[in-house]
Structure formats: structure tokens, C-alpha cells
Design brief:
The complex is a heterotrimer of chains A (about 280), B (about 290) and C (about 260).
Chain A (H helix, E strand, L loop, with lengths): L3 E10 L9 E9 L3 E5 L6 H8 L7 E6 L2 E2 L5 H7 E4 L12 H11 L4 H14 L15 H13 L5 E5 L7 H18 L2 E6 L2 H5 L3 E6 L2 E6 L1 H5 L3 H5 L6 H11 L11 H12 L3
Parallel strand pairs in A: 3-8, 3-9, 6-7, 7-8
Antiparallel strand pairs in A: 1-2, 1-4, 4-5, 9-10
Helix pairs in contact in A: 3-4, 3-5, 4-5, 5-6
Chain B lengths: L2 E10 L7 E11 L4 E5 L6 H7 L8 E6 L2 E4 L8 H6 E4 L12 H11 L4 H14 L16 H13 L5 E5 L7 H17 L3 E6 L2 H7 L2 E6 L2 E6 L1 H5 L2 H6 L6 H12 L11 H13 L5
Parallel strand pairs in B: 3-8, 3-9, 6-7, 7-8
Antiparallel strand pairs in B: 1-2, 1-4, 4-5, 9-10
Helix pairs in contact in B: 3-4, 3-5, 4-5
Chain C lengths: L15 H4 L2 H14 L6 H18 L3 H25 L5 E5 L2 E4 H27 L2 H12 L9 H31 L9 H6 L2 H24 L18 H20 L2
Antiparallel strand pairs in C: 1-2
Helix pairs in contact in C: 2-5, 2-6, 2-10, 3-5, 3-10, 4-5, 6-7, 7-9
Classes of the chains: A alpha/beta (about 280), B alpha/beta (about 290), C mainly alpha (about 260).
Keywords (chain C): Cell membrane, Membrane, Transmembrane, Transmembrane helix, Transport
Function (chain C): Transmembrane (T) component of an energy-coupling factor (ECF) ABC-transporter complex. Unlike classic ABC transporters this ECF transporter provides the energy necessary to transport a number of different substrates.
Subcellular location (chain C): Cell membrane
Amino acid sequence: MSKPLVTIDGVSFSYEGQQTPALKNITFDILEGEWLAIVGHNGSGKSTLAKLLNGLQFPQQGKIAVCGTELTEATVWEVRKNVGMVFQNPDNQFVGTTVRDDVAFGLENHGVPREIMVERVQTSLDKVQMGTFLNQEPHHLSGGQKQRVAIAGVIALQPAIIILDEATSMLDPRGRAEVIATVRELKDREHITVISITHDLEEAAKADRVIVMNKGELYREGTPEQIFEMDEELVQLGLDIPFPVKMSKLLRHKGVELTKTHLTEEELVTELWTSHSKM
Amino acid sequence: MDISLKNVEYRYQADSPFEHLAISDVSIDIPSGTYLAIIGHTGSGKSTVLQHLNALLKPTKGSVLIGSREIKAGRKDKNLKSIRENVGIVFQFPEHQLFEETVEKDIMFGPMNFGVSESDAKARAKEALQLVGLPEDILEKSPFDLSGGQMRRVAIAGVLAMEPDVLVLDEPTAGLDPRGRKEIMDLFYTLHKKRNLSTVLVTHSMEDAAKYADEIVVMHQGKVLTKGTPEQIFSDPVALIELGLDVPEVIGLQLKIEETFHTKFSKISLSERELAEMIAEFLRGGGQR
Amino acid sequence: MMEKMIFGRYVPGESLLHRMDPRSKLIIVFLFVIVVFIANNVPTYAVLAAYTFLMVGLSRIPLRFLYGGLKPVFLLVFFTFLLHIFMTKEGPIILELGWLKIYEEGLRQGIFISLRFLLLILVTSLLTLTTTPIEITDGLETLLNPLKKWKFPVHELALMMSISLRFIPTLMQETDKIMKAQTARGVEYNSGPVKERIKAIIPLLIPLFISSFKRAEELAVAMEARGYKGGEGRTKYRQLAWGMVDTAMLLFLGAVTVLLFVLRG
């Protein structure tokens, strides 16, 4: 771990015809094997960042290098092999008429021989628990299922990095949980680096590292613990505080001693139990 | 205006090979001034119920009473427009219904369809825009030049300008960021109180249901599973969890603590502050019953 | 009414016709459209009809379903029949009702031409009933492949077709949703004067256009992100398999054609 896989160096970007830049002088590294959450309210520049990482847009200033290759018009197709992306709207990224065709789409684009395709389609779908839906049509799938198919389509190409661009924001709670669990499992088993762009702080709490974006700038960077110490500042930024963090704070306020701010309910309950049950 | 569903059943594409039973034996009373939340999974039938509230769907069995009008299975109904004037629906992703050249015209569209004069509709557009927290200078802009969050608000303003007695909300905050979500939900709650509306909120969010509703209906597989006040509904959280439904996080935490400490608090708490108080109290007592 | 229409509808099944390669089915339908014109007397039409009904039998599509689905088409066939009966003025008069005269040749032509029409419709319907739209697309793509030499965009056309097919149900759902949203805002789609109803289409069409453009844009981005850069260097996942049955069915049609020439008057 801890080898930088992606380096972003002084990147600025403005959309055509807009005065305020979408990104202002952004610099940070993405480490191999980490789960990085990029959070920020709608319009904070986080989605623009995702587009730059995949060469869907190019920075006007600064450099981005992915797996040692600088991202330019010339290297973009090479880089895209290493960076898979899952978008927000489950419907608008489903190209195939059936689940298996959709997963195969990326493989076809990269000219993968058919025998390998057949095998990869099956194994990738198995990995996201959609292996029994091969011939299903997209309009018969739930949002969460469609997003899992999209993930299968990405991992079929065996990328080093997977970017989730608000991939859970249009899903119901069940779909959201399915997708997050799937990604978690993939990250642990396949050692894929995950970049999740989100405004769901519960999702960010599960990451190894969090970057907070605000008005096109990198506002703060740290572990989830460090980020949630920001507390009211997060609310000011249009974000929220995860429930366990809120409860930790309230409990302290009511005179309950806690060693730290907890990010999960389990941790919180465990500390309450170990520190108080002995009395 | 009271609304009441009596033993409503609805089948999609009835009498065809593609027939599909969406809801059956649904009875719900929504007295005037109630804030009702309908919760359940995707596919539990809650969207189908919602469409009966202003006669967008007609029951295939049973009847729906909307004010003094009765919509009954197997009978032709005329002039449903008067119902729709009184029951406004904010659909999921309502920004998809925008179509006019300017924000103002789009907001005026609903009221003018119901016979409001142009000058009145203009006044209503201004007022509605203010209600949803948008500046007046966007009235002349094209709705398609706005940000996603602003478009959502314009679409909501378009429904509010109809000045309905009953407001039906289908996941009105889906896809918004936390701040937008809170602002919109607070807006509806304020309106509910100020204008003495009936509000029906269809949602996945147990948090919102617990926070805003007077009454909760839990839908499961096309049927009403339970209904009652939030306190009643969440007093048996285990039953909900068994159905794969979430419970509000506050209640989830309370359950975990009760389980770990082998105890039972005196009541189910729906507020974070109150739960913290209860836990602190309990721990001061030595963590014993 | 719309629910019973069978044009362009696929009925899942395992019949011989279902299992055939879409290419052979496309070729057979194409040839059949030509072969039909060989028939010019009772024996030849009888052979054609027998061939068609044999195919219907092989497809295992329930006759009642086929009949129900083609009902609106029968009206059209009947109309063709009437047209020919009244317009053809050859041969001896066989019936005279006031100013209305029916000639023998008219009756003959009426029967033959409406029969031809009916058989054509049956055979083309069988194609869509037993072949998924995507199979048809694949079949067309391979059959048209030689045209690539003349810069005909075969791959793009096939991709366009398959994406349209993929999005039809999505757009149907969307239409229904927007229609309901506007109905809730006081638009009436099912009643009221015609002028009002035409006006009501605008609040439906504009949102549909806008969302379709948005979808197209997002889809293009997603496709690009997944490495799509045109047809070059692409491999194909879906494969077509030409079997014995396909060759046999083509030969069979060949035999029928020879028979038609022999019986032709």
C-alpha cells in the first residue's frame, strides 16, 4: 500500500462559458489500495474531478498522472483501461439490451477475444451477485441491481481503480446498501482502489480517507475521524454529520465519558459496554 | 379535505396476459390536516396508493373518497379536474415535468389550467417562488438554465401555486445533498402547519417519517401492514427489521444498547437528544436495571 | 387494443423457428417477398398458402394469439379485396347490382392479391414473433457487412438500433410518468375538445425531448468511459450460429420456388 497510484498536481478547470472555475489548483495523491471518499455538496466540483480522472475532460492547468502515465489526449484510451467509472443514473449507463450484453460492452470495445469475454462476463457478474440474471432486460431490474451490473461491467476490464460518481445517490436505502457492500467486498478481495464521490457521509465514514471539496477547492483532507471532528463546519458546507458522530457528541455533552468520537454504532456501543459494565 | 381509501385494489393491465396485482385491500383514512407518511420498499405498492389520492388511477375494486367525491371501481367519472385542483402531487424527480420557456410560465401553468386568471397566476408564481426559497430574478429565466436543485424547487413551486388543500409528496428529496434535503423537508412542514394542509409523504426515509408525520402507514407486498403514530409503529421495531425495513437510526441504536446491556428502557425514543439523555441516565445508574 | 397488437412483438419460445439463425430467417423472408410474385393461379397460391401455414405450425405460436393480433390487419386485407373487386373491369360480369358491376377478373384479382398480402404479413410477423429484436439487429449487421466496403456505416446503424431497442421501455415509463405529472397539474389527455388535447401534447413532448437529450449525453459519456471509440478493433460477444436447420430451410424454400415455376400458369 501507500504507493501513489494517481497524482493530481495543481489542477484547475473551468467549464466553457462559466466565470467561476469548477476546480481551483487541486493537488493530492490517491494511494494504491485505498478507499478514498471525495465529499462536497452539489456543485462543489467533486464530479468534475471524477471526469478529469477518466479523461472525459482535461485540465486547463496542472497535471494528472494515472499509474505513472500522464493523462493526455494521446494516452487517454490507455488510462481508461485502468480507471473504471460508475455513474449516477443507473439507466443512462446501461448500453446492452440484456445484463450479459451490457457487461460485454466494455470488453468488446477493448477487443477482448470472445472466449475470454464469455468467461469474464460470468465471473464479473458472479462477483456482484448478479450471476443468475444473465438474460434479464434492464427495465426488469431495480436501481441497485443495475448499478451492480455497471460495476460488473467495470471490473470485467480488470482496472486498477474504480470511481463511483455519486453511484448511490439515486437509489433507495436497500439499493444503496447493496452497492456499498458489493464495492467493499471487491476492494477487500481484488485490491481495487476505490474513489467514491458522494454527499452521503455515512458512505464516506466507511472510507480510509476523506477529501472535502468546497467551491472548487480542496477544503480538507484526512481520515474519517479527523474529518468528522469538523462537526458544525461540515453542516456549514452543506453536508451532514453521521449519526454515530452526532450521538457521541450528545453523550459527551450529557456527561458520558468517551475516549473518542465513534464512526459506527457498533464501536460506540462496544465502548459504552466495556467502560460501564464493570461498575 | 378528508381523503379515505376503502378496500382499494388495483391491477395493472387488468384482463391481459400481463395483468399484475399492485395493491389489494388497502384502507387508509387521511383526515383534513393530517401529516401522513407512507413507508415501504420499492415495489410495496406505495406509489400505486399515491396515484389514487387524486384519481390518476381508479381502483379496480373498492372506492376512494376525496372530499365529497367518490371514485368507485367500475364506474365512469367525469370532471376529475376539480379533484386535481385540490390535491397537488409532487412526483419523484419533479424537475422532469418542466417544459415552459420561463420559470414564471411554468409555475403559472398549473393554476391557469384550473382557471386562475393570468394576473392572479403571476402573483401566485411570485409567492410560490419565495416559498421555495428562490430569488425573484429567476422568474424570467429558462428553467433549463438552472442547477438541478433549483429546478427541483421550481417544479415544487409549480405545484404549490395550485394552492391545493392536500399535498402529496413522492420522495421529494431523492438525489439532493443533505442541506437541500433538510431545507425542502422543512419547507413542506412549515407549509403544512401554516396553511393547515393535509400532507402525504411517500418515503424510504424512516428518519423523515419519524420526524414529521403524525401517522405512518407501512406498506408491504401491496398491503397495509400496520398503521399508527410514529411511537406506535416504532414501538415494535423488531417486526419492521424482520421485514427488511430500516428503523430510524435512533431506534436502531437504542435496540443495540438494550441488547448489549440486557435491559429495556422505559420507552422508545425518537429524538437523539432524548436518547442521549436516557443513556446517560442509565449509565449513571451503574449500567444496571 | 395496443396490448393485443403483435407487430414487432417477440414471443419467447423454443420452436424450430425460434432456434434458427436470424440471418437465415431474414434471407428467407426477403426471398419470400419476391417468390410470392411468382404465383398466378390457384395451384401456385395453394402451394404458397401451404408453405406459410407450415411455417406458422413450426413456430408453435398459438393460432388464437396470431388471429387476435392480426385482426386489425384483416380489415386492411378486406379493404384491398374490395378495392380490386370494384376497380378491375375485365372478363364477364358475374354480378350486377344497379350501377355496381362485379367482373370475374375482379373477383379473381381480389382474392389473389388479398391472399398475397395476407401471406406476406403472416411470414414477416413470424420473423418478429420468433426472433428477438437484438437478434434481428445482429443478423442485419452481418448480412450488411459487405456494404462496409462502400463506407456504409453498418456497425453504427446496428448500434443505433440496439440502443433504441434498449431504451424503448425506459421511454415508455418516462412518458407515462410525465403524463401523470401533467395530469396532476390540470392537463386532460383523455377528454375535452380536440384543440385542447393537441395543446396538451406540448407539456408532454418537451420534457420527453429534454430528458432524451440528457440521457443521450450521459449515455455517450458512459460509453466513452467504457472505452467505446467506434467499430474498429471491436470484438463481438453475441454470436450467430448457422446450423443444419438453416441450410435445410433455405433449400426447402428453393424447392418451393421450383415447384411454383412448374405450376405457374
